[in-house]
Amino acid sequence: MPLSQRGDCDSSRGVLDGVVKWNELPFNTELKERARELRKAGNLSEVLFWNQVKNKQFLGIDFDRQKIIGNYIVDFYCKNLGVVVEIDGISHDGKIEYDKQRDDYLKSVGLKVIHILDSDVKNNLSGTIEFLKRELEHPVPSGHPSIRGEFKHLPIDTKYFKDLELEILSQFDDLDKSLDGWLIKSENYQALNTILPKFKEKVQTIYIDPPFNTGDDFSYVDRYQDSSWLSLIENRTEMSKYFLNNQGSFFINLDENADYLGRILLEELNFEEVKKITFDTNATKDEEADLFGYKSFGNNFALKSSTIYFCKNKDSKFYKLWKPNRNTTNLNIGWLDLIALPKKDRNKYNKIEDFDYFIEKYDTNGHLKYLKIDINEKIYPVGDIWNDIYSFTQSEMRTSENLSFQTQKP
User: Which of 71, 102, 367, 397 is most buried by a 10 A CB count?
Assistant: First the structure.
């Protein structure tokens, strides 16, 4: 039986099988012209979706498009089911708040709201329709373990549950706010283009580890001519600048095959400042310790370092790090965690006494705080040659790359 034919109308209750009757919903007549304009100007995802559900072709359900409910115009409305379908595009602060107010209102008048991503309609239309079919034919009860209960926070890889992917995503009112990081598998230039509108001028730190222009064939292409390599890096680095906020920093890791080209490129891109850091991969300073990865084996000298270029944006703040003599110190601190902040009453900052010193500590509530400490021994500012950061080979006694990943750092 088509869903739209289920149940009997009870005019005394004004509902159909417990669902608000479509012709008794609140209606703002002043929005009629606006709703008509929106129907004519529908975007691609709305048109694609409408072509799948119009004329009762989807489960026999009668859909309205750009339906006025109260003071809102919803994307799609299932007349006899009391269900609103919203197709969500790019979110921003104002839209997120508006969507929440609208959803709260719709729920207050007894309607259910289903959110579908604009990108899902465009890229996986059949999967979107299948998800909607399951949602309407077999709605998940509120106590279902996939939503509440002991499995609420169970991590899964949706790669193995394609038939549930859209259903899982629909459980988030605001997916962006629920995520604490993004992992993107894509051709990187296209990915940067795609996400630029969302992250423009919002990123604090960028670190890239591009192919080193060695001429070898690793798991990625690494046999470019110099001109091709420069074009590859220039395009992506220039675009990366647009992601940085005014206090942002940019790091690029290179070896002896490309470090000189990298410096020229970064200066051409007009970063505020370009500094070179040398990362010593044999931090023990013991030439006979054999604590280095396979990339250290060169045709001539053993390769014991790589280059990291550090670039600042115009308003970047740089806090100098300090360290004690690790063989004699009485300070209960780790590597590189002694932070120095200039004293406000000083005009110059050339001496140890010109700074206050802090370490970062977690308080009882789990918040990271600065803890001021007194320095009663000699300390040293961290320089641009990093020779005290141990590589993994000092905890795993072998010379091969960790986990046999050919492209991993030593």
Answer: 102
